[in-house]
Specification:
Helix content is 27%, strand content 29%. By secondary structure, the protein is α+β, with helices and mostly antiparallel strands. The strands form two sheets. It has a three-stranded antiparallel sheet. It starts with a strand and ends with a helix.
Length: 112
């Protein structure tokens, strides 16, 4: 059975989204990480080879969280980006694989 969120909590500074799942997993996901790993075609392209590295998002914040049906949320960032739909599975994957994905992103930015 796919993971199901039990809580989404945005920090007061709007720079961290904490997602709790029914299996007990809980992930604190920085807004910068969520922005640069956006599931939108603008970031991911239409194949893995087309994925682009988004830069300059260290200070980005999440302005709003909009539910999309019962399967996802749309995160609206203060840089105007709002096209990615973050499904529950994708949020769980981002949390589960955060160490690997975040390290790869930061290494690519020279911030390893």
């Amino acid at each position: 059975m796919p993971p199901w969120p039990t809580e989404l909590r945005l920090s007061h500074d709007k720079r961290t989204l904490t997602v709790s799942f029914d299996g007990g997993a809980q992930f604190a996901l920085p807004a910068e990480y969520l922005r640069v790993e956006s599931p939108s075609a603008e970031v991911q392209g239409h194949s893995p080879a087309q994925k682009i590295t988004v830069t300059g998002k260290e200070a980005v914040a999440i302005q709003a969280i909009e539910p999309v049906g019962n399967y996802a949320v749309r995160l609206i960032f203060d840089d105007g980006h709002a096209t990615g739909l973050y499904t529950w599975d994708y949020l769980h994957q981002l949390g589960r694989d955060a160490d690997t994905l975040w390290a790869a992103y930061r290494a690519g930015q020279g911030r390893g």
